[in-house]
Amino acid sequence: MRKLTIDCSSNGALVKVILNGQFTQLDAINLKTELPSKIKLEKKMIVDLTKVSDFDLTGINTLLRTKLMLSLKDVLMTIKVDNNEVIKKLLKLTNIDKEFVYE
User: Fold this and answer.
1) Alpha-carbon separation of residue 100 from 1, 3, 39, 67, 95 (angstroms)
2) All structural domains of the chain
3) CA 73, CA 68: separation in Å to the nearest integer?
4) Contact at 8 Å (CB) between 28 and 61?
5) pTM for the whole thing?
6) Other CB atoms within 10 Å distance of the CB of residue 65
7) Per residue of the chain (103 residues), what is the pLDDT tens digit?
């Protein structure tokens, strides 16, 4: 079980957030405020979930809430899941997959 790490980088109009490790309920609570705070003047955020494990409905809720908060700032949030079949399947089963733009 690896603790979740968050790496952020920004270049101009883009913020890239890479999450790596186990996604717990506590992480979900913290990320609801932390992710939107990473945006200053940027207009796009990519959240890379390819190396996240233990993602559940709390994680989906966090993504949806973050997407909503960023949209109020006119910021487009996209997610990257690549070959993370667990997250892909969860998004599809909950019918939330259409809510996101994918990298």
Assistant:
1) 28, 25, 18, 8, 11
2) 5-102 (3.30.750.24)
3) 9
4) yes
5) 0.90
6) 16
7) 689 999 999 988 999 999 999 999 999 988 988 888 888 888 999 999 999 998 888 999 999 999 999 999 999 999 999 989 989 999 999 998 898 889 8
